Amino acid sequence: MDAGGTDLLGLAASRLNWLDQRQKVLARNIANSDTPNFMPRDEQSFDDVMRNGTLALTQTNSRDLAGDTSNAGTVAMKVKSRSINGNGVALDEQMMKVADTDTQQRLVTSLYSRYMGMFQTAIGKN
Virtual CA dihedral for 46, 47, 52, 56, nearest 10 degrees? Predict the structure, then answer.
């Protein structure tokens, strides 16, 4: 499915995969908000990921293909302040990023659904 030289469904799938990986990184940051000397991380920007190639597979089930489980796609975040135990996680910033990621996921799935609806209408399935 190529719409004007752009694989819209493939781009949407890549974006959703990136957003899923970002949610996991942010969840790890929040889970470690009391871990001494823990430094938060974030995913590389989606633009950088698309510019540098495809997203790496992540193995979520023992029957899945082996994927990349390292922090290769993540980057260290700039920390504004640290707690007494050296932790750099600011929960308010992490929660804002989680909310932003959730909004982006809803937008991409909505656009995907609308595109599929238009495609089905075009081929006479609706």
Answer: 10
